[in-house]
Design a protein that fits this description.
3-stranded antiparallel beta sheet; alpha+beta; 11 helices; 191 residues; 4-stranded mixed beta sheet
């Protein structure tokens, strides 16, 4: 997945840590703890990521904190890539055959950006013939990791198309919002 494209194992872990919690600042030692990598390797990668403009550092007291820069030109592309290949998106792709016949799997943009604190939005939409106990198990694991509830909806293709044709407000809200397609074609989803 992500490690197929980026050869540095440490860089992959750092990108996953930051993009799966995009609004958080991390102290160097916390990054070392969470990635389970050597401090010098982490510092080297952080230096490289700061030099290329993806991260910024901030000194507070005598600690150094790092934060993603949202104005980096590839920020949202990297966010989408990490969300698709790690966390819940990665688990859905990895367990695709166990989950049934998935036509569409989509994560909301607010879930990916970690801004859906109110839990009003649907974080995950699955369309197809889904094995409910399998998906609920994956979602439960991710809820424990993220320490928050994940709202998900499962529909058959027929139900989804019917509700789309009837201009169901619930489905339209999902289709009008920002999203990251994990499985399926986005144009086909909204057509």
């Amino acid at each position: 997945m992500l490690s197929d494209l980026i050869v540095s194992r440490v860089r992959v872990k750092i990108l996953q840590l930051f993009f799966l919690s995009p609004n958080k600042m991390f102290h160097v030692r916390e990054i070392v703890r969470r990635t389970a990598e050597e401090i010098n390797a982490v510092r080297r990668e952080l230096f490289h990521l700061e030099k290329c403009g993806l991260m910024t550092k901030e000194r507070r007291a005598n600690r150094l904190f790092y934060l993603l820069r949202r104005d980096y030109p590839l920020y949202y592309d990297l966010l989408e890539l990490v969300v698709k290949t790690s966390g819940l998106g990665g688990e859905i792709i990895k367990n695709k055959t166990k989950l049934g016949k998935i036509k569409f799997a989509m994560l909301s943009g607010s879930y990916a950006r970690d801004t859906s604190k109110e839990n009003k939005n649907v974080d995950l939409l699955l369309v197809g013939k889904i094995v409910l106990p399998e998906i609920s198990q994956l979602v439960r694991k991710e809820e424990i990791k993220k320490e928050r509830e994940i709202n998900y909806t499962v529909m058959t293709e027929e139900e989804f198309e019917f509700r789309k044709r009837r201009r169901d407000p619930f489905v339209l809200e999902i289709l009008w919002g920002p999203r990251i397609m994990v499985i399926g074609d986005e144009e086909e989803l909204v057509a």
